[in-house]
Amino acid sequence: MKTQHLLLPAAALALAVLQPAIAQDVDMQASLYLPPTNDTVVGGWEPFTKKVEERTEGRISIRIFAGGALLGARASSQGVRDGVVDMAYIPMNYQPAEFPYIGGMINEFAAVGNNTYVVTAATTELVMTDCAPCQEELKRAGNVYLGVSAAPGMVIMSGSKIDELDDFQGMSIRSGGLLWDRFISGLGATPVNVPGNEQYEAMSRGVVGAVMHVPSSLISVSLIELTEAVVLTNLGLARSQNTFATNPDTWAKLSVEDREIFLEEALKANIDIAAKYDDSGRKALAMAQEQGIDVVEPWPELQQHIDNFVAESVDSGIKVSVAEHGIEDAAAWAEKLEALNQKWTAVWEETDGDLDAYKERFVEEIRAKVDLESYGL
After folding, report:
1. What domains are defined for the chain?
2. Which region among 197-201, 212-216, 321-325 has the lowest average model confidence (pLDDT)?
3. What b/e string do you get for 339-363 counting C-beta neighbours within 10 Å, with b at 16 or more?
4. Per the confidence metrics, is the pTM higher than 0.85?
5. Which residue in 155, 156, 158, 154 sits closest to 209, CA to CA?
6. Which secondary-structure segment (H or E) carries 110?
7. What does each C-alpha distance from 33 to 42, 65, 76, 181 come to in angstroms?
């Protein structure tokens, strides 16, 4: 049965927040605009729900509605806030006005770090434990944040052959956000903002001539059917998603022990999603080559363009964050993110690529810094 979200008088609500939740049965609905074949769904959400149900002995059950069956990408945040659903996958970079820190500034720093496991841990730690303005914007939006899984570097999947920079002139390309908008514009092309679940339709109808997205989209959304060339243009890693966004009223219903289970499994699943994307991306590129699609390494002129863009991206991100997102101390946040990237790079090296050991360190670090009596309430 769907859990109802009741409106309480202010005094009663305050008392409910102060009193520890008692373990109870909670049946949740989760909205994912991503298709059921997407790596985030298969590699993260599905194992997450099973683990939570198993570890809570069935007290918590989560039913997934994928493919935008309940809410689209841009409606997901409001849907969680209003209790239309209990959980959702929210791409905050689609709404930088609502999420200037996470959806705006942090997304601008996509070039800080190039290891998906490291960036996942560094960004999650920053938002959950060291960024009060991030938590304030999440609270305003009615979203509890349980971490991010950094997306791998995006490539350009084109419906026509790409051999030189002039081939990009005048082309419309699906973009992954403001950072990628600037790169695409610098190529002489036009960036078009299309949600990930709509990119096949946009390309098939000629709304865009190419898509800039993760390599696994060749398979997960069948872009391989429309693609003639894949250009390997890794500018950095997207990191502004709220993978397991949860309604605060639903979160408050969970006992502290069940919140701990919820958090631990969400953190682990974010690492597993990164691993799934890495594996699927390699397989997708190999399949593309087998089918005669050009998989193009950047030629010298394009590589120079990429190198220059990446080298300037942090400074550009700081300027954009100040001018467009109103974050005057953006430079200090860039330094914090870089420091956390160095910290988690060291952990990655210490664990020698052992994902289980890395996940254990990740969970331990975050769990030690998050007070589950009050977090998200």
Report:
1. 25-151+238-281+317-369 (3.40.190.170), 155-237+291-312 (3.40.190.10)
2. 197-201
3. ebbeebbebbeebeeeeeebbebbb
4. yes
5. 158
6. none
7. 13, 8, 8, 22
